[in-house]
Structure formats: structure tokens, C-alpha cells
Write a structure and sequence with these properties.
By secondary structure, the chain is an alpha+beta fold. The chain contains nine helices and 15 strands. It has helices at residues 81-84, 92-112, 117-137, 142-172, 210-214, 216-225, 244-254, 271-275, 304-313, and strands spanning 5-15, 21-26, 30-35, 42-49, 51-56, 61-66, 71-77, 86-90, 181-184, 189-191, 199-205, 231-237, 259-262, 283-287, 293-295. It is globular.
């Protein structure tokens, strides 16, 4: 049965905003770009069908539930996105529920990915029971409840894959990193082994990845801050070969700094990419001067925690 499209009224006040644009993405290439007005408020009216969307502010993103005749009002501090986002108006209950569900998922993984599989499964089942109760007893739209029940039922498969990958990444710590040998932006080749004796902070990215590109200014600041320290900053593009020229042009235009490499679409075709279980980007890796892995899933350049770690290692 085809879902009905209806009018959505959307208003957002974003403090400490990351951009003057908000973008809502959905299925079937749905995209609604909302510009800030002279009153520094994001306002729009548009047509959308019932379902789960993604709201993106240039750095942070959050799931969004939309349905015909919803009139959503949002307030959020972009520096503490998930901790401060609040909804009012028609559709507020459903979207506040999604925020709490997303936070619950985040903290569940943060606290439990290092647990043994038997304990993890027990905790996973307890989480499902709790969430099903919250869905069934909540003052929520009927269609939304169906979406959330399906989400809760499918969460186990996703969680088990994430646990398997998380345990693998944890076990990589202090092991020797596999080498790579990729084309650099000067036309030669660069290998990881060339940086023996230095820390190496690696970014795996692609030109089509907006969250990847949003980290570039933060990475540039790190490169500038630590340019006399014992560390190299290496960015590895996983763009397909057909986008090689686009990658080169982007490097020439924005001059991101550091060492720029092109992997020739080798996301799943090399020991390096496979060892790190790189299935999503951006991904960041920190390696010590001996070539051993400090963190196989390091903090992003925009994270204050990364600078604290680098300050400690490079003092």
C-alpha cells in the first residue's frame, strides 16, 4: 500500500549551529534543504510521506519521524546535539521517543560491546523487552508504533554484527598494523612502513561522503597544531577509479594538508582495509612509531578527546 504524502510544517532553532542549512534526507532520493531566515530560524513547509528520515546539520544527524499534518518545532544546541534536542508540536512525542531510543542504543554499545557474547545476549534481550513495553504503552502514533516495533525486532541482528566487529577492533590494540601501498597526490606511491618511527593518524574517507568532508577543517587545524611533532596525518580516499580526477581536483582546490592517498576502490580488497573492518566512513586509525595499533577506531578530528590523547602522546 502506497504511503500518503502530506504537508509538513517544520521550524528549528539551532544554537551554536554548524551550518546555515539543515537537510532532511529520506527514501526514494528525498531531500529537503532548509535555509536559515533573517530571524535565525529554520522554517519550511513541504510534502513528505509517512516514515523515518534523517535530519543533518552539517556535522550532526538525527533520525526524524514525519507524517502528513505534522507541525514540528525543534530546539537544539549543536554543541551538545543529542543531549539538548527537544521537539514540540504535532509529532513531538514520536520524535522525542526516537531521540531517547538513539541515546539508549549509543549508551548500550558504549557500555557493553566489550562484554562476552553470553552476557551481551542477556543484556540485548533485556533491552528489547524494555523497549517493547515503552512502545506499547507510550502515547504514540499507531503507524509510528509499527515502525518502532519493526526497529526493535531487527535490532538484534545489527547489534550482534556490531558486537562482533567491536570485539575484533578491541583485539587489534597493540598488534602490528598491516602495511599499505597507495598512490599519493604527487603521482608516486606511499606505504605505511615509510612512517616507521612516527605516530600516524589515518583518515579513511571519500569525496562523496559529506560527514568525511566536514571533518577536513578540523583535521587541518590538527595538522597545523602538531606540524613540528612526531606525527604524520594521512588521508586515504576510497573513491572509485572513475572519481580519481574529482579527488585530485578537490585536493588542489581545498589543500587539506597532510599526506593524501588514493586507494583505487580497495575498501574490501586489501589486508589493510579488511583487518580494520572498515565498512563505513569516515573512519580514523591511530598507529604508534613501532607500527602497532593504538586505536583501530580513533576519535574524529572534531573531537576534543582526540586532542587530549595526542597532547599526551606527543608531549
Amino acid at each position: 500500500m502506497e504511503k500518503i504524502r502530506g504537508e509538513i510544517k517544520f521550524t528549528a532553532k539551532v544554537f551554536n549551529r554548524n551550518s546555515d542549512l539543515l537537510t532532511i534526507y529520506g527514501e526514494d532520493n528525498f531531500e529537503e534543504v532548509i535555509s536559515i531566515n533573517k530571524n535565525e530560524v529554520f522554517e519550511a513547509q513541504f510534502l513528505a510521506q509517512q516514515g523515518i528520515y534523517t535530519l543533518y546539520d552539517g556535522k550532526e544527524s538525527v533520525f526524524l519521524y514525519l507524517k502528513a499534518n505534522f507541525a514540528l518545532e525543534i530546539e537544539v544546541n549543536a554543541k551538545e546535539f543529542y543531549d539538548t534536542i527537544k521537539y514540540k508540536g504535532q509529532g513531538a512525542n514520536e520524535n522525542n521517543f526516537i531521540v531517547q531510543r538513539s541515546l539508549s542504543d549509543h549508551y548500550f554499545f558504549e557500555q557493553n560491546l566489550n562484554k562476552d557474547i553470553e552476557t551481551f545476549l542477556v543484556l540485548l534481550e533485556a533491552k528489547k523487552v524494555s523497549e517493547m513495553h515503552a512502545i506499547e504503552t507510550g502515547d504514540l502514533d499507531t503507524d509510528f508504533k509499527k515502525e518502532m516495533i519493526s526497529w526493535a525486532q531487527n535490532f538484534k541482528e545489527y547489534a550482534l554484527l556490531k558486537h562482533e566487529s567491536g570485539m575484533h577492533i578491541l583485539n587489534l590494540k597493540d598488534t602490528l598494523s598491516p602495511d599499505f601501498n597507495y598512490e599519493n597526490c604527487n603521482g608516486g606511491e606511499t606505504s605505511l612502513s615509510q612512517f616507521k618511527g612516527k605516530y600516524v593518524y589515518i583518515k579513511v574517507w571519500a569525496t562523496y561522503c559529506e560527514p568525511c568532508c566536514n571533518e577536513i577543517p578540523y583535521l587541518q587545524k590538527l595538522i597545523e597544531k602538531y606540524h613540528r611533532k612526531n606525527i604524520e596525518f594521512v588521508s586515504i580516499s576510497i573513491d572509485e577509479l572513475v572519481n580519481h580526477d574529482k579527488w585530485m581536483k578537490m585536493i588542489d582546490d581545498i589543500k587539506p594538508g597532510g599526506i593524501q592517498l588514493f586507494s583505487n576502490d580497495s575498501l574490501h580488497n586489501t589486508d589493510f582495509m579488511n583487518t580494520y573492518h572498515i565498512n563505513t566512513i569516515p573512519r580514523f586509525i591511530l598507529i604508534d612509531p613501532s607500527g602497532n595499533i593504538v586505536n583501530a577506531d580513533a576519535d574524529r578530528p572534531s573531537s576534543a578527546e582526540l586532542q587530549i590523547q595526542l597532547d599526551s602522546l606527543l608531549k
